[in-house]
Specification:
about 425 residues; alpha+beta; OB fold (Dihydrolipoamide Acetyltransferase, E2P); Chloramphenicol Acetyltransferase; 3 domains; 12 helices; 19 strands
Amino acid sequence: MSIEIRVPQLPESVADATLVAWRKQPGEAVSRDENLADLETDKVVLEVPAPVGGVLREIKVPAGTSVKSGELLAVVEESATAGAAVAATAVAAAAVAAPAAAATATPRTGPAARRVIEEGKLAPGSIAGSAPGGRVTKTDARAAAVAAPVAPAPASTAAPASKPVPASTAAPVTASPPAPPVAAARAGRAEQRVPMTRLRARIAERLIQAQATQALLTTFNEVDLSAVQELRARYKDSFEKKHGVKLGFMSFFVKASVEALKRFPVVNAAVENSDIIYHEFFDIGVAVSTERGLMVPVLRDADAMSFAEVEKAIAAYAARARSGSITLEDLTGGTFSITNGGIFGSLMSTPIVNAPQSAILGMHKIQERPMVVNGQIAIRPMMYLAVTYDHRIIDGREAVQFLVTIKDCLEDPGRLLLGV
């Protein structure tokens, strides 16, 4: 019995998707729920599972094609013995490959990296992964593509220079200067044209939209994180033992931001046409960097979350974002965002607002600096903070006081518990 494989129903806000790669080829056996293809939208990567076990008979849409909800992708021939055939094939393949598994094992790769590998016709097993667990990133694949040696010309096309010429028939030849090393020069000047992923194109579109439609301005301050570091050092072991997650800095910044948003509701608002929408809830987006680009999963009702719940949610979002299993619902909405360039060493930056939100908090590198404390010079762990805001609805006074409130909460974390 033939079963049609169609594009799953895409979310309402997503018009189409790109078929990034096929995981099975015609004639190959498939098992139920096995991933057949990867679909990339402007936010997430979706998998197309096989509804039944059988054999992939025909592929209707090639990789790289844009598809819409319900469009026919492939045809699977259902077979009652397909499950047994797949299992037998897997056992046989494992038995044959076991002696050479260490040398031929294919490293884990994400969709973006697989696309670069396929376009560059690279051997996946020859690429060393730099991500945790040996995972190959898009950057690793691109580096391997640039470093790939140029294949030598076939022997049949080489000039027969090896045949000796008799001295009696050889014509006198004037020595000429050696040709410039063109091949060597080109080897170090390689170029590679790679299509922009849908996520990267969407990020570019949103950033340009924010700068073109909002009156963006950034204000800065600095915060002494001595109290936060002392609190973390004192309770990190017991916190991790009780909750099963590490006590990081982000939970402090999320809770401090919520407190500041409560005091300055306009920072939590958004502009829609000629109206200002004041959100009476606090959905905080936390930027996560992945090999596909920056994603901003949302902590729903962050004001009702404990420190442990914030840390667990951020860790879960980051894991799903980097594995490609994050959902569109995880990334939708948000009333305020936080981004941390400090993990990459950034000392100061001006983050761009995640429209239609009206403000974003930028965290930066913690650096020990000499500070004057009670008339004495002391070495303190300092961080520059930045708030970029939409000046159409947020005045400078409110933005500065908002940032000062975050600073006060972090320099005296007891305020977060007492609400003062």
